[in-house]
Design brief:
The protein has one domain: 3-Layer(aba) Sandwich (Rossmann fold), CATH 3.40.50.720. It contains 10 helices and 9 strands. Strands 3-2-1-4-5-6-9 form a 7-stranded parallel sheet, with helices on both faces. A two-stranded parallel ribbon has the order 7-8. By secondary structure, it is α/β, with parallel strands linked by helices. Helix 1 packs across helix 8, helix 3 packs parallel to helix 5 and helix 5 runs parallel beside helix 6. Strand 5, helix 6 and strand 6 form a beta-alpha-beta unit. The protein starts with a strand and ends in a 5-residue tail after the last helix. Helices cover about 50% and strands about 15% of the residues. Bound molecules: NADP nicotinamide-adenine-dinucleotide phosphate. The site of NADP nicotinamide-adenine-dinucleotide phosphate has 25 residues, from helix 1 and helix 5.
């Protein structure tokens, strides 16, 4: 039997991340480290993965996502027994834009959890991966990072930070001729606990399973960017290129 794929999932309790983990567990032996802000909640997902295959092992770790020393310690622990094959960074929260506009603390929290934290966690993992000369890392960004919009520009700004960060990281790895691959996933609206309020108001949402399938496939292929579902690549191409004089007339 193949040796297990060593996989770290940060924000492992995310519905999209959990679907990705299930897909990896179906593919073959896996040794998961599931990272969450609550070890208790992460353990529920670990138990689900273990129950799905006898060839899956899963441990959990609790992390303060904005604590750089804790991030460094996590990465040190995760890589101490050998290189990590796959890292998925999935955590995030969809803030209320109106609240962020009135409350700088809410805006700061949203910028931290969606922008700064994923970039710092990726930065901590990429050094050991580059030194090991292998591995695949993916951050879940969002279509919201492609262009700032009235309705969610604080969240969009954080996801835009991740976009620019990944771009630079990919450039660094390409120039170093590193085999390590980094993927930025950009889901559109997806049916997860994060969007429960949108579902109630009748919004059309993709399934977390379909989004996860595109992410897992893109990571395996080493693709730099994946929109999920794929139609968002075209929609965002149009939105990104809409001239400002037109864009500023559209209430989105
Ligand atoms: N759903 C969408 O429509 C959509 C669209 C585009 C991009 N995305 C992105 O996809 C990723 C996964 O989200 P999801 O849709 O799967 O949502 P989800 O099921 O609601 O999961 C959100 C995840 O983020 C964690 N989280 C939330 N606030 C946090 C905080 N302050 N500190 C640390 N962790 C926090 C949650 O942990 P707990 O379990 O501890 O709460 C959970 O693991 C996110 O990066 C999100 O921005 C989602």
């Amino acid at each position: 039997m193949n040796s297990p794929q060593k996989i770290v999932v940060v924000g492992a309790t995310s519905a999209i991340a959990h679907q990705c983990s299930r897909l990896w567990a179906q593919q073959g032996p896996c040794d998961f480290l599931l990272v969450g802000r609550s070890a208790e909640r992460a353990e529920i997902l670990a138990a689900d993965l273990r129950a799905r295959s006898a060839h899956v092992t899963a441990r959990v770790a609790e992390l303060r996502f904005d604590d750089v020393d804790a991030i460094a310690e996590l990465v040190q622990g995760a890589t101490a027994t050998g290189p990590v094959d796959t890292v998925l960074i999935a955590h995030g929260s969809l803030p209320d834009q109106a609240i962020c506009q009135d409350n700088l603390h809410a805006a700061q929290d949203a910028l931290r959890v969606n922008g700064l934290s994923p970039a710092l966690i990726a930065e901590a993992f990429i050094g050991p991966m580059q030194r090991a000369g292998r591995g695949r890392l993916c951050i879940i960004g969002s279509v919201a990072g492609d262009r700032g919009r009235k309705s969610n520009y604080i969240y969009g700004a954080a996801k835009g930070l991740v976009d620019r960060y990944v771009q630079g990281l990919q450039h660094r790895l390409a120039l170093a001729k590193s085999p390590v691959r980094v993927t930025l996933a950009k889901p559109g609206p997806t049916d997860t606990p994060m969007t429960a309020h949108l579902k109630q108001s009748g919004a059309k949402l993709a399934s977390s399973e379909a989004v996860a399938q595109r992410i897992v496939k893109a990571m395996a292929a080493g693709r730099p960017i994946v929109y999920a579902p794929g139609k968002w690549a075209l929609i965002m191409l149009v939105i990104r290129h809409l001239p400002r004089f037109l864009f500023n007339k559209v209430d989105i």
